[in-house]
Amino acid sequence: MTKSPEGEPRSDQPPERSEPATVPDTPAPDSSADPAGAETPDADAAPTLDTEPSSQPTDPQNDAPGWLLRYHAWLDERTSPRTRRRLGIALGFGAAIVGTLVVLVIKPLGLDIPWAAWIGLFLANWIGNGGILVPIPGLRFVGWTMAAHQGAEGPTIIVGLVAGFAMALGQTSFYLTAAAGSDRLSGKGKDRSGSAADLVRRAKDRTRDFVERHGFPTIFTLSVLPNPLTTFATVTAGTMGMGFRTFLVANFAGHVILGLILALFGERLSDR
Q1: pLDDT single digits (tens) 90-141
Q2: What is the pLDDT of residue 64?
Q3: Helical H segments across 155-229, by residue range
Q4: What are phi and psi of 207, to 5 degrees?
Q5: pLDDT per position as a tens digit, 44-103
Q6: DSSP 23-49
Q7: What distance in Å separates the CA atoms of residue 163 and residue 252, rounded to the nearest whole number?
């Protein structure tokens, strides 16, 4: 050992250098593996079905068959109201003319084909009450008149049943379309002013209130009585989720009674 100029001992050996810490080797990532770490799906594995529930809301009170709702919703979306109205006018008033001619012209000639008159009676009342999802002005009154007229000429009970079932089926189409969520049957139209418009608006508000509070009696009563608010009450019942079976019973019972009343009324008039 030697001494430094300052008098401190100094070692002649070079200082030891510390070795850097070794880092353990890590295996290189496999290029065939998923970068996210997920396992690759097996090509032979069977596909899994998506069991996630539908996001479409369902109304627990609406017990109408799904295929009926889908059909009426599809029919309302695929065809325009103008097209249906033109078709309804042609078929409805055409059937009314044919049914009336059968009773007034063909029957007096000795050709008894009551089924032709009944078909005309059915079509006029079915279309007039919404069978093609659009109201036809004046056709409901024509159907009522045909029921009374044919009730005087043919078997009264059959005429009343045919007319009643046709009216009930037409209103059922309105109900199903409203229950399926149609925007065209929401009842919202242009705001109109005037005493007549105010009267109609108050009548509709009162009808809606009665349907919401007393569904079955309201539908039944409006079905028995010939009035212009039956269709509005039907649409309200479908929109608010009135039970399909409840509506069917009230609707068919009321309209069958109405058909029988019209046919009996015509028979009484012919006896005088």
Answers
A1: 999 999 998 888 888 877 766 667 788 899 999 999 999 999 988 888 999 9
A2: 78
A3: 156-179, 195-213, 215-224
A4: -65, -45
A5: 444 443 433 333 334 445 677 888 888 888 888 888 888 989 999 999 999 999 888 888
A6: PPP-PPPPTTS-TTSPPPPPTTSPPPP
A7: 11
For residue 54, the SS3 value is: coil
Question: What pLDDT digit, counting tens, does each position of 147-172 carry?
Answer: 999 998 878 999 999 999 999 999 99
Contact by Cβ (8 Å): 165, 253:
no
For the chain, give every domain's residue range: 66-271
Cβ contact 242:215 at 8 Å: yes
More confident residue, 180 or 192: 180
Q: How far is CA 121 from the centre of its chain?
A: 26
Residue 189, SS3 per DSSP? coil
Structure tokens at 184: 């065209």
* Residues found in the chain: 272
| Separation in Å, CA 194 to CA 41, 117, 188, 198, 200 | 70, 42, 17, 6, 10
Which helix (H) or strand (E) is 3 found in, with range? Answer: strand 2-3
